[in-house]
Amino acid sequence: MAPYRHFADKEALLAAVAEYGFRQLTARFTAAAAEAPEPRAALTALGVAYVVFARDEPSLFKLMFGPTIETKSAHPALDEAGCACFDALRNAVEAAGFVDGENALNDVSLACWSLVHGVASLIVDGRLADKVAASAETIATRMTRLLSDSLAALDGKKAAEHPNLQQHALRRRRRGKLADSSADQ
Questions:
Q1: How many structural domains comprise the chain?
Q2: Which of 70, 80, 116, 130 lies at a 20 to 30 A Cα distance from 63?
């Protein structure tokens, strides 16, 4: 009963726990991105970090994303932590250079999140154990690379079809190299 002295009700207590979970997941994203050698590898590392977090913390993962907290938006700190976590993913998608424009960035970010969330949920729910004989890290790496390679292929195809896009892709690659070299300094 001691925790209830600090929270208005059970939902407020659970919201604080879920907020903690989002902050922990964001910290894992930050660490994974920092260790990656380049932006596309960082995006894959975030996907792996997401799946491993779910595997390591299944109850917390289910609380964060499940229906237990009925009105998540009624808890500003939880909402802020969830948005910060998604923004870390969104920033990684942007840095990977697959997209231009806000709508495409939002769509690709949602696709990346959907992919890793689906994989994580299947692992947490024990739905892959009899179908895939691989670790969570291996599955997440393969799936995120598949998506990343597909996005890169689409980006290359668009550039080949449209000369203006070729120039734009070249500028994006140069920007990425400049950002990489300034980060090294």
A1: 1
A2: 130
